[in-house]
Hints:
By secondary structure, the protein is mainly alpha-helical. The chain has one domain (2-470). Helices cover 72% and strands 4% of the residues. The strands form two sheets. A three-stranded parallel sheet has the order 5-1-6. Strands 2-4-3 form a three-stranded parallel sheet. The radius of gyration is 22 Å and the shape is globular. The chain starts with a helix and ends with a helix.
Amino acid sequence: MEGIINFFNSIFQPIIDLGAAPMMFIILSLLAIVLRVKLGKALEGGLKFAIALTGMGAVINLLTVTFSEPLQQFVKSTGIELTITDVGWAPLATITWGSPYTLFFCGIIVLVNIIMILLKRTNTLDVDIFNVWHLAIVGLLVLWFSDSLLLATGLILLIGILKIINADLMKPTFNDLLNAPKSNAMTSTHMNYMLNPIIMVFDKIFDKFFPWLDKFDFDAAKLNSKIGFWGSKFAIGIYLGIFIGLLSQISIKETFVIAFTAGVCLELFSLIGSWFIAGIEPVSQGITNTVSKYLKGRTFNIGVDWPFIAGRAEIWAAANILAPILLLEALILPGNGILPLGGIIAMGLTPALLVVTRGKIIRMILIGSLILPLFLISGTMIAPFVTETAQLVGAYPAGVEAGTLITHSTLEGPIEKILAVLVGKAATGQIEFILWALIAVVVYVVLFIWYAKQMKKRNAAYEEVEQQQVS
Length: 471
């Protein structure tokens, strides 16, 4: 297997040396052409993706440069050692795609998906190729700790298979949330939905002990409408900047500068994020067309990125309320080293909360508050890996002081990152880590099996309602 990786390295290293944006432009354009996408569309997709990477890097640079000195003052004035810089998700995507192992893991997942379709173990065709980096980073973590490609590949396969199964399980719930017909093809294999099992544990606890809380639920759309600008990404960035400015004891002028800069950056994160989706669309469409051509007569669900459900107001209402909670938890959580900046809007969590609770906003906020520390813990754990890997692939964000640890405070798949650390350390032969890794993997799988049974019950109830409506 190492020989295969070395072969890929020899082919792709010259492309990787060009930098992340040119590399992804070349790879995505060529892949789309191979999949018989029209040349113009193939090049357009590659260019959009490259522009998105470049744009996100520029925003991160602006944010980190603006906040660098105030954050240093913040540490001095408060005595709180939050020295890990939260650069958001885009630099981590760039770092991950900068490794040839990511292409290897991507190929494995595509192959597994096709095998599962052929064996009729899934009806979901995963076309969300870009976001395979969320899964690939799990394998890279194992490799960073152990150099065991076999273990890394094994963990990738396990989580990848469960992600695809989860997309099938969620499909009826997506139809319900979107008020869409059964013929709706969209579902998602995104890593953020792998939090569903643990969220469902809390949801069942609410069902049993606190069902009365649902009486106080409110209409998130109306709340968002009433709050308006004051609950927007612009406003949350301004609040964060003012908060840091006050704690850092900097001048009013400097406080305004970082507040307005944070507001702009948080809004641009969302805008530029949509460019990534547009950039990958030609490749996704090419894969869909190819599979449909050779498997006629089958109806497929299409696994896409999570934002197709972003029209639900509950996602944003919960995110707005969870943002200050995340900041507070970061200040008081023992062992946390991250001050949330790039990840202050917890998109790695709120879509999963929506699916499991089916939009019960009070449950989303309370359960979200209990789960946010997982993100801070995992983000702190992986910071040395992220920093070293960024330096190796030449993707360390400009503007961040040399030697500063970097990470993402709400990176999707916090449980999977913790699993990767345990599995990677277990490969070194330490008995305690071997035991912890075995226990963690078993609990992870058993919890998913239990969750799958609950979702099947929910889906059977959906089916029963549909049959009653027909009759």
